[in-house]
Amino acid sequence: MRKLWFSVAVAVLAMLPAIYFRVTDWRPDPILDAMVFGAAILAAGFMLSWGAETAEGQISAGLILAVVAIITVLPEYAVDIYYAWRAGQAPQSDYVHYAAANMTGANRLLVGIAWPLLVLLHWWRTRSQSIQLAPVNSVEILFLLIPSLYAFSILMKDSISFVDSILLIAIFIAYLWRVGSLPKVEEEGEDEDEEVGLAAEIEKLPVRRQWALMGGLALTAATVIFVSAEPFAEAMIDSGRILGIDEFLLIQWLAPLASEAPAVTVAILFVLSNRAAAGLTTMISDKINQWTLLVGMLPLAMSVGAGSLMALPLDARQHEEFFLTAAQSLFGLALLLRLRLGIGGAIALSVLFSAQIGLAFTFRDDEALTIRTLTWLGWGYLALAAAIVAMNWKGLKQILFTAARPHQQVRAQPASAER
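The chain above was modelled as a monomer; its predicted structure follows.
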């Protein structure tokens, strides 16, 4: 139990400076502010992840990983929704761009860094060339495909509207309903009673104390995230200006790194505890809820800020950022058509993502060249996705067929390593 209480104590200590800054309204320096509030959000995210890990043993099997994914990305939601809310208050300001940038950056980080990282860790630990999914995971693949295709209708009108919000949130609700009916996948080498991370320590407590601790962690984390989101978001903008770094790029890449870290850490713990498929499924679920629920909530947050219904507009730069994000999603999905993500696919995802980052910083002072670069990268993703789908057409049909079958007929055994 010492490990548990030590971890909680460290998290609380990381939060205290942010609470002091917020209560006293002391803002000594934007860079220091960003570090203090960013550390608090990160610590709160880990608190949420510990509760989510423990709840894995308490929740209906099909919902487990989806719920874990939702809880652990709440810090990302808080920051992005704040930008959208401020955009509603000042529709002509840069906050409109910041909201879109944070959302596209978070989505691309998941596929470009988190997915490959899990595969490489799994290879390092087991020397297995891929993470194998189960036929039951066809549901996740289908529900990531639907919003990825729907994204192109948003691109056609260059805005995310209230109607888009309703449809995307409906897709997310349908996803939760569908996974709620699925059986739990038992992975080879998995111990049913084995938990990962601090969940193992929490489960040593009596059941009532477990729930009390989970509730306390969730309440503390939610409060800290709520009070830290605004100053962290503003400090990121001011820090970029002070350091001479494009604040757009900081918001797109650095802010999501802090807010996504707890979710990725949970997935890593799954991999390290012989549950690589659960780790990858969590990251796929994370991508689904961000690509549906988060995108859908941005116009709603903007409308609340404005006091009337508003759509989140996409300018020329954001159009291409959104296009690249949708194209990357389709490429990632294409790599999953054989119900596995291998070393080759992981390397391709990470290399292409690294190219995005390198080119973004290289051409940051040339908006026209940046837009052209995003366009060509997006078409490159789509070309690769089309080629992979053409070679695995039967796999796509099988996934669609399996995902549509009644849950009683969906088998939960892991996919074969040889296909």
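Strands lie at 130-132, 159-160, 312-313, 340-342.
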